[in-house]
């Protein structure tokens, strides 16, 4: 055979081999790959979407965008996308590349502190390949980047390294799919996964589930609960991780649909239970979901609520061989239905939040009898009456934990009472008292206009539900963060707080749990409409015939329980005016000026609200028409000049005591028949009172705290006896009262005050000084006072200098420092309506102008308001508006001020 023919044959064979090799590689490249099978098994979340540009367009039209666009991650991403577009040679190139493209994003935990994302992006056409090639070439040409190409287990990984920062990323291609991450370790893990073969999706349980075919769904979201604790461990303190582990053991995984509706993100779908022994599911298996009726008793200041619904609560108990185990089993199983662990708003990050456990009982009376058997003796301090409730102390350590498991630890001792068909447990009797008072006043979720839209959208029954009110939970969140993440959380506080409610619920549905997550954002579009149409403030007025002598006291009209203002004019007429300023409800002509506040108490056979107040020498009680009540008024002496009336209700059962003090330091204490009480006929002290006397109850004993202007502090019993350790001398003049935190004993009950010279003093009820801290006093004329908010839950300290006012928090952090036009005396008021809804009012007595400041110490409203006396304030949580009532000359004013989001 001629050599030429042999060469041609060899050439044809080589060409055929090359063609076959090229065809094989082309076929492999075009082979469709299920991107889910590339995802490493340790992914915490996986999101699949085919509509990224459409989702971003919708997001930018929603209330969420103003907040989302300020997130550091989003800001960095926007910068990176802008850079990508500039390097690819056109605008919106990357956006166009993502149109109608099915892609995945997975989240992974890297070590103990970091998380990172993996992106899986198909490249389908020649144009898309050309776009990627051009983009990479231009990135390499840019001075700030360098490219490093390396071989890893048969795959070519490209690392793009930024010369000046950590904005690096790595990628490789697999069957026309790009795998990209800022972490080269994650990219290498995908390569190893491919080389191991037998690729399987982490979401194989949901291979037939695809919500993307439904309208308005933007993503399938897969959650792997086995790795959720790993994620939380990167930012939570270690002592919380046991609870996270237990809650995460309810389900193995979830597949949820993602929807967006203006200010709300919805994730809904189904979850598969975690069947391993000891899981939360193994305890709740077979239990039907329960209706969320707890909303009627959860207070508005709740921060975090864990809600469980089950047929019998004994299933939560850990197996124990301890003594009394069988009795505790019986007691635990007497509870059935709803179990709610509620953490209340904390007013600083250093204090443990108050907590309340609500446990529904099948037969509350029977369960109560079992609880009483734990401590049959009723020694002093173990039982007290509060309104219609009996609060009992059980000294059994960690009783809720013994009954319901480790999630309910932290009750060194337990106070309990019955409310409706719930048994309430707290570790602090003061928490129990305030909770019962809030429920009675209707300050609960079920009656809150702000909570109504959230509760309407959540599942109406569940087995496990978690509710977070972000503003109320803020200090709790900061306290829960590990040291590495606290600073980051504080830096982004304005962003996090905008997402004001979260609910995450699981309800049994055949062999799965129907799962729903709702993340709500503050509504801003409605606020913008208010600002645009009405401006910052609106003012309504009500004119009277004579000049006003008092501030408007915000009370209730007994006929219909609507808000009412009570004020006195210079003709000595007391007026009851509707808070809408549209009618006068009643009047009462007096013979002297009202001294101090007007109180409202449920009193008399009809159990209706009545009005009580003092003039210089008399105590009055009047009904809804301004008529004197039977036995009233009480005349104490023509020569007296009383300062104010204070009301004590020792057991919250309507058996009131009326206390009045005069300008000489005498204190009179009377019952509702006008009888002076033993030891108070009067109690004669050496100086005038710096503030009204305060009542507290500790270990079953009533304590009346009295602070004198000369710096002496007294603690009296009901009969005027002085408690051991008192009086104490603080060694400086005072012009304000005490902030009291009742504890389980006198030793653990503390009082804080500030002297006129700026020394913050804390002492306990044994009379022992705990601490003294001196605040900066820049001028010898500087004076200090403690200013509590009306509910008494928190306080600030005000420093007044000539022409200047500074405000300090409970932690002595400077909140506000402002100069004013005149050096006339200033009066400071502080209002706190939960979370960041704080209002500081500073009134100049000379100009009779009141200046309003928000939590950021920024002025609210363009101009000060006219106010001859301190103001009263309501808060509309739905509209985020402060409603102020002020007296000025002959006019009652209602002023609406829009709060900031």
Would you kindly provide a written description of the structure presented here, covering whatever features stand out?
The protein has 901 residues and is of the alpha+beta class. The chain has a domain at 279-524. It is built from 19 helices and 54 strands. The strands form ten sheets. The protein has a 20-stranded antiparallel beta sheet, with helices on both faces. The model is unreliable at 9-29 and 529-535 (pLDDT under 50).
Tag the structure with descriptive keywords:
21% helix; 20-stranded antiparallel beta sheet; 901 residues; 4-stranded antiparallel beta sheet; transmembrane; alpha+beta
Task: Tell me the β content.
Answer: 35-45%
Q: What shape does the CA trace take? A: globular
Helix run count: 19
Rg from Cα: 34 Å
Q: Which structural class do you get from the secondary structure elements?
A: alpha+beta
Summarize the structure.
The protein has 901 residues and is α+β, with helices and mostly antiparallel strands. The chain has 19 helices and 54 strands.
List the helices and strands and how they pair.
Layout lengths: L2 H28 L14 E5 L2 H10 L3 H4 L3 H16 L5 H6 L4 E8 L3 E9 L3 H16 L3 E8 L2 E8 L6 E5 L3 E5 L2 H13 L22 E6 L3 H5 L8 H8 L2 E11 L2 E10 L6 H5 L5 E2 L10 E9 L14 H8 L2 E10 L10 E7 L2 H10 L9 E4 L2 E6 L4 H6 L9 E6 L2 E5 L2 H12 L11 H6 L3 E2 L1 E6 H11 L2 H9 L1 H6 L2 E9 L2 E9 L4 H10 L2 E7 L9 E4 L6 E6 L4 E6 L5 E6 L5 E9 L4 E8 L2 E5 L11 E2 L6 E7 L8 E6 L3 E5 L12 E2 L9 E5 L2 E7 L4 E5 L11 E2 L9 E3 L8 E5 L4 E6 L4 E6 L8 E6 L6 E7 L2 E5 L5 E6 L6 E7 L5 E7 L4 E5 L11 E2 L5 E5 L4 E8 L2 E8 L3
Antiparallel strand pairs: 1-2, 1-8, 2-3, 3-7, 4-5, 5-6, 6-7, 8-9, 9-10, 10-22, 11-19, 12-13, 12-20, 13-14, 14-18, 15-16, 16-17, 17-18, 20-21, 21-22, 23-54, 24-25, 25-26, 26-27, 28-29, 29-30, 30-31, 32-33, 33-34, 34-35, 36-37, 37-38, 38-39, 40-41, 41-42, 42-43, 44-45, 45-46, 46-47, 48-49, ...
């Amino acid at each position: 055979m001629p050599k030429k023919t042999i060469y041609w044959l060899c050439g044809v064979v080589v060409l055929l081999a090359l063609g076959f090799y090229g065809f094989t590689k082309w076929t492999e490249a075009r082979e469709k790959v299920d991107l889910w099978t590339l995802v490493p098994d340790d992914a915490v979340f996986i999101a699949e979407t085919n509509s990224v540009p459409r989702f971003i367009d919708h997001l930018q039209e929603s209330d969420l965008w103003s907040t989302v666009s300020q997130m550091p991650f989003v800001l960095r991403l926007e910068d990176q996308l802008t850079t990508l577009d500039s390097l690819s040679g056109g605008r919106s190139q990357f956006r166009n590349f993502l149109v109608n493209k099915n892609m995945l994003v997975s989240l992974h935990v890297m070590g103990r502190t970091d998380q990172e994302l993996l992106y899986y992006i198909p490249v389908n056409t020649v144009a898309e390949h050309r776009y990627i090639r051009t983009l990479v070439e231009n990135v390499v040409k840019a001075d700030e980047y360098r490219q490093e190409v390396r071989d890893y287990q048969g795959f070519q990984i490209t690392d793009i390294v930024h010369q000046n920062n950590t904005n690096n990323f790595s990628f490789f291609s697999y069957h026309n799919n790009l795998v990209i991450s800022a972490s080269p370790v994650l990219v290498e893990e995908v390569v190893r996964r491919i080389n191991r073969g037998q690729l399987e999706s982490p979401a194989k349980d949901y291979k037939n589930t695809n919500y993307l075919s439904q309208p308005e769904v933007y993503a399938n979201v897969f959650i792997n609960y086995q790795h959720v604790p790993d994620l939380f461990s990167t930012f939570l303190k270690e002592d919380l991780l046991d609870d996270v582990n237990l809650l995460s053991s309810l389900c193995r995984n979830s597949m949820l649909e993602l929807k967006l509706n203006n200010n709300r993100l919805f994730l809904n779908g189904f979850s598969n239970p975690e069947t391993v022994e000891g899981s939360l599911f193994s305890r709740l298996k077979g239990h039907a979901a329960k209706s969320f009726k707890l909303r009627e008793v959860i207070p508005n200041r709740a921060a975090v609520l864990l809600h469980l619904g089950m047929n019998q609560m004994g299933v939560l108990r850990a197996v124990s061989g301890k003594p009394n185990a069988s009795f505790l089993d019986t007691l635990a199983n007497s509870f059935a239905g709803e179990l709610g662990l509620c953490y209340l708003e904390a007013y600083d990050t250093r204090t443990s939040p108050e907590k309340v456990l609500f446990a529904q009982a099948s037969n509350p009376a029977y369960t109560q009898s079992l609880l009483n058997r734990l401590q049959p003796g009723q020694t002093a301090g173990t039982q007290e009456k509060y309104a219609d409730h009996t609060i009992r102390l059980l000294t059994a350590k960690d009783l809720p934990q013994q009954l319901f498991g480790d999630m309910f630890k932290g009750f060194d001792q337990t106070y309990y009472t019955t409310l409706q068909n719930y048994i309430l447990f707290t570790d602090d009797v003061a928490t129990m008292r305030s909770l019962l008072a809030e429920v009675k006043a209707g300050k609960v979720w079920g009656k809150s206009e702000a909570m109504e839209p959230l509760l309407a959208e959540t599942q109406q029954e569940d087995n496990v539900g978690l509710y977070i009110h972000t503003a109320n939970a803020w200090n709790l969140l900061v306290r829960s963060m590990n040291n590495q993440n606290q600073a980051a959380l504080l830096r982004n506080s304005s962003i996090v707080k905008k997402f004001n409610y979260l609910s995450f619920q699981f309800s049994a549905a055949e062999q799965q749990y129907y799962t729903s997550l709702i993340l709500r954002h503050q509504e801003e579009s409605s606020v913008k409409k208010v600002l645009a149409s009405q401006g910052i403030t609106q003012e309504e007025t009500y004119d009277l015939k004579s000049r006003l002598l008092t501030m408007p006291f915000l009370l209730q009209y007994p006929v219909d329980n609507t808000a009412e203002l009570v004020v006195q004019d210079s003709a000595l007429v007391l007026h009851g005016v509707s808070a809408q300023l549209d009618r006068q409800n009643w009047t009462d002509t007096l013979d002297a000026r009202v001294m101090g506040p007007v109180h409202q108490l449920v009193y008399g056979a009809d159990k209706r609200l009545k009005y009580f107040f003092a003039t210089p020498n008399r105590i009055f009680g009047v009904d809804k028409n301004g008529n004197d009540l039977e036995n009233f008024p009480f005349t104490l002496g023509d020569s007296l000049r009383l300062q104010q009336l204070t009301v004590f209700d020792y057991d919250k059962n309507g058996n009131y005591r009326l206390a009045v003090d005069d300008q000489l330091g005498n204190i009179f204490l009377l019952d509702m028949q006008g009888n002076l009480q033993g030891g108070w006929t009067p109690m004669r002290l050496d100086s005038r009172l710096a503030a009204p006397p305060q009542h507290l109850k500790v270990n079953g004993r009533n304590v009346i705290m009295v602070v004198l202007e000369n710096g002496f502090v007294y603690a009296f019993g009901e009969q005027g006896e002085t408690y051991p350790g008192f009086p104490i001398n603080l060694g400086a003049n005072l012009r304000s009262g005490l902030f009291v935190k009742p504890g389980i004993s006198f030793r653990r009950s503390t009082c804080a005050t500030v002297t006129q010279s700026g020394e913050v003093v804390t002492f306990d009820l044994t009379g022992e000084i705990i601490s003294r801290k001196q605040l900066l006093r820049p001028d010898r004329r500087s004076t200090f006072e403690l200013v509590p908010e009306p509910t008494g839950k928190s306080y600030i300290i005000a420093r007044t200098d000539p022409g200047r006012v500074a405000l300090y928090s409970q932690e002595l952090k400077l909140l506000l420092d402002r100069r004013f036009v005149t050096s006339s005396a200033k009066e400071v008021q502080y209002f706190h309506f939960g979370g960041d809804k704080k209002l500081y009012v500073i009134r100049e007595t000379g100009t009779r102008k009141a200046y309003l400041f928000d939590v950021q110490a920024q002025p609210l409203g363009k101009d000060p308001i006219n106010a001859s006396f301190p103001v009263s304030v309501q808060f509309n949580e739905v509209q985020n508006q402060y409603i102020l009532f002020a007296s000025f000359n002959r006019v009652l004013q209602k002023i609406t001020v829009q709060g900031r989001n």
